Please model this.
Amino acid sequence: MLSSDRIDLPPESREAASPSGRFVLSVSTPDAWKSKTATAELVEVDGDERRVVWTRKLPHEYGPRFTLVTDEGTVILLDEWINVASSRAITVIHPSGIHPSGIHPSGIHPSGNVIAQHAFAAIPEVLWIPGRELVAAARHGLWMTNPPTLGDDGKSVRAESGGRTLVIDAADGSLRAE
Amino acid sequence: MRNLLPTLAACTVLLLAGDAFAGSVINIQPIQIRSTDGSTTVVNPGMELFEAVGDKIWDQAGIDLNFLSWTTVDDSSLLDLEVGAATPGTEFYDITTDPTSYGGSANALTINMWFAASLDASPGFYGVAWVGANGIAIGWDAVAAFNGGVGRLDTIAHELGHNLGLGHGNFGAGGANNLMTTGGSRSVPSSIGNVTPDGFGLDVLTSAQITQALSSDFVQDVQVVPLPAPVALGLLGLGFVGLLNLRRRRAAA
Model:
């Protein structure tokens, strides 16, 4: 009998919508994952109109594992597709911000504005649980026991890990434990 | 020298006690697949880290990995190795069932491990092995490039586990921190410091997996036969004389 060490690659294109459907994030590969990088595009939907808010390349290997979008257009990316202790365990991207060349005329950052990025090492510290315990209990990637969800307020993300809940504030990207 | 003293002391105790020291070893024949003219090679010099990680993982079972000197097989058609269903006529089947024609060892108890550039041209395909039988192929380009170039550090140890009879769903595999868990669910260390018993405690082997692995014919016992007491005491004396000489030289300097 044969056995292998391989991973199923993510679909070549996937989408995540905000609760109301106003914003839709698509993550896709331009080259069937040969380059292992993904392109993300946030679109605002208004009836039949679809306006591109921002587009950017993501450094996550084979893209992020989980993507969530709030009705304010904030995008929260969790982990990389590969199961490693990532330096990009949590990334929060706002639709607006200061462009390197100054305030963008439209008030919209053309590639999104990363307001917070946390490495995996930050998570055990916030949850007050040793990293090896989070890893041992993980079922989705390196540290999550369930897929993350948007909170009832629609302005935070909740991710269960090691018997506790990590709450990510979409407004500023800060972390706290519950 | 200071680091050697505990080892010397331990050996001395063993020798004086007259106890045999027993260990286990797996001999591995690494084979590099190259282009037909030998100009294209697959494995880069970073291989030492992968060996060190493999040694640390299998140390849980008291098994030492002994990598023999590299051999090569020059055949461009094998650079992207066809695995498929591993039926007769497919490349993986052919090289593992006729290893000596493809750079492998003639010793049936030495595990043959081929390093191809890729397996089935699939970027997420890192390694493949027979379960409970001899033969491993590594898709080196994908392994080396994994995690931003850090490498998929535990693939070699994982595939060795298959040759030793371990599967993805038996003997306690299945947890994210277990060496033999399937590739999509296993957490992979980013450094040797996160391999159990250290750091995040990754690539654990259960006691059932260790028992199964140690029962494999590929795991060979190594015996250190105790020396007779007079010989041991003589060697001990020589060691002390050597240490005294070293001390005198340092003092003179």
